[in-house]
Amino acid sequence: MVEFSGRVESVSISGIREVFEAAGGDAINLGLGQPDFPTPEHAREAATTAIESGAADAYTSNYGTESLRDAIREKHARDNDLELGREQIIATAGGSEALHLALEAHVDAGESVLHPDPGFVSYSALTKLAGGNPVPVPLRDDLTLSPAAVEARITPDTAAVIINSPANPTGAVSPPEDMREFARIADEHDVLVISDEVYEQVLFEGEHRSPMEFAESDNVILINAASKTYSMTGWRLGWVVASERRIERMLRVHQYIQACASAPAQYAAEAALTGPQEPVEEMVAAFRERRDVLLDGLESMGLPVPEPRGAFYVMPKVPDGWVDEVLDRGVVVVPGEAFGEQGAGYARISYATDLETIEEALEIMAAATDAVA
Q1: Is beta strand 331-332 parallel, antiparallel or unpaired with respect to 334-335?
Q2: Is the sign of the CA dihedral 260, 102, 308, 118 positive or negative?
Q3: Where is 80: in which H helix or E strand?
């Protein structure tokens, strides 16, 4: 009987999905990693127009449409002070495919990839599927990734380092000086830094800077997406930015597993990037208000909470049994260990839902906290 590859056997279904499936259908879900806002109307209309006109009927270039890549170029010039050419960009099926391309094109079997712990669940899994060895790096007390901790773990077998700011699952934001250090590490150690910036615009305090702004070599790859900024998770449209030689290698992977990103989604993302940005500003303002309400409620329970400065997650330290007690009472949160061994003793709570629901959940979580105290 034909068995399964060692690569696929080395990964399992995400712990996040396991929590969702165990929860009842009427549970309050504070585990979702997607905004609860509609996709901007002008983005929807652009997709509709492309479909009705027939413009979305055919394959696009493997890279993506020229007009979308121009919109991405303009976005990075405006927001990140990066001057890019069209051939430095591939439109992908979400940020997830962009990460997959970067790892497949740069990691050989047995090489190691450093990543934050706790960190996004895909980092370790996609490293294993590429044949690499994930090396978790514990975070600081404020849940940011320390460049010194990364540098101390680099060996001759290190192929890449994944960084993420604003971060999932922590909401932490790396300061500009750390991004400069990550760029220096990429240059001096000749390792690839893959910078996951999909939450870039969901920022409350601090300043977002990309290590690509500071690197002197081409050893930085930037990943972004329309998913979080424009509430377009279901559209599956992201992109990867790198030097032309790195993009050409990633295109070799992309053309065989995807051919091109969805054409309607490309037209929608182009409109989102070039159109009015007020929907983004309104969404971020709402997330800030929700964060503050959730922080106040958790702190009133006596739970230590590193203050999240971006994304839409908070990650408090919780006592033993807290997550199970909260789940049993009908509120879905995700145990921290789903994001790595160092996440044990934490819980990830998403505030991508309305204030009324958050306030109801806080009452239940307060009762759960009293029960396990």
Answers
A1: unpaired
A2: positive
A3: helix 66-80
The two tokens of residue 240 are: 């990867």
- In terms of Cβ atoms closer than 10 Å to its own Cβ (0-12, 13-18, 19+), residue 57 is exposed
Sequence-distant (6+) residues with CB within 8 A of 54 are: none
* Block residue for tokens 């027939």: 54
- Mapped onto helix, strand or coil, the DSSP state of residue 72 is helix
CB 356 within 8 A of CB 288: no
Looking at residue 183, its pLDDT comes to: 98
Q: No. of H helices and E strands in the chain?
A: 13, 12
Q: What is the mean pLDDT of the chain?
A: 96
What own/partner pairs with CB < 8 Å and gap ≥ 24 does 145-154 have? 145/116, 145/172, 145/174, 145/178, 146/178, 147/178, 147/181, 147/182, 147/184, 147/185, 148/181, 150/114, 150/182, 150/185, 151/185, 151/189, 153/114, 154/114, 154/185, 154/189, 154/191
- The SS3 of residue 239 is strand
Q: Which amino acid appears at position 197 of this protein? A: E
pLDDT tens-digit profile of 95-132? 999 999 999 999 999 999 999 999 999 999 999 999 99
How do strand 28-29 and strand 220-225 relate by DSSP bridges?
Answer: unpaired
Tokens of 20: 């969702």
Of 100, 96, 74, the closest CA to residue 85 belongs to 74
39: closest CA among 366, 268, 250, 342? 268
The residue type of 140 is R
Q: Determine the Cα angle at 158 with ends 154 and 164, to 5°.
A: 80
Q: Residue 348 has which token pair?
A: 């990830």
In this predicted structure, what is the pLDDT of residue 47? 98
Residues 330 and 323: their CA atoms lie apart, in Å, by: 11
